[in-house]
Amino acid sequence: MASTEKNNLLSKLRPYIIITSAYIAILLILLIIFDNFIMPAVISSGERVRVPYLIGKNINKAQQELERLNLKWRIVKETYSDKYPSGTVISQMPSANLSVKTSRPILLTLSKGQEKISVPYLLGSDIRSARLALAQRGLELGDIAYEFSDAYPKDIISKQSVSAGMLIPYGSKVDVFISKGPESQNVVPMLIGYSFEEVKSVIEQSGFVLGLVQYRVSETYLPNTVIDQSPKAGEMAQPGTEISITVSK
Q1: What class is the 187-248 domain?
Q2: Is the full-model pTM beyond 0.85?
Q3: I want to staple 102 with a disulfide (CB 3.0 to 4.6 A). Which of 12, 70, 129, 153 is the partner?
Q4: DSSP per residue over 19-36, as a string?
């Protein structure tokens, strides 16, 4: 009795089993056809063209050439360049003259132009400090000229060719002027060898003032003779500057 019921149930399910099996078989056949025939045809379809040479061309012109050939493109990077101006193609992938499918994108790198650097403030610095400050920013010290200056002491930078804060290309040079001190300067006279009585007159006649007087034993000079001075003879100094002397005893 149980066997009869089981056979009846299988008889009722057999049409559904057949239909389901046929459906699965059809899906498998369609999948095989799609994978082996349709997809390869799609992948292999598409016109093949030669990639144009784009390096050195403005991005707008490069875009026009690519679109004329039905090629897609994408900017993947922008970088500074001393050779190419801003907005110019500096590299491409694939390279020029390679044959590619129109579906393949051309990857472009664009120039951002020369890197710009902010000029440091150099006024009031000595030449060594200025050279270092420029080098730290990728700039160079250019020509050095000299001028009289009432505002800056001798051997100090009094002018710079590019104002502080201005942006200039990386590696540029900045010229400077070095102060020679005030223009109204006198030459410091030679005082060594003069007697103490004579030296005050010599100092005043040269436009200076006698400063500190010190005494020191000397085996070379007679007593009461000037054996050292500051500033040194031949240096330039403003009128009224004190000149200190050392006198033998």
Answers
A1: alpha beta
A2: no
A3: 70
A4: HHHHHHHHHHHHHHHIII
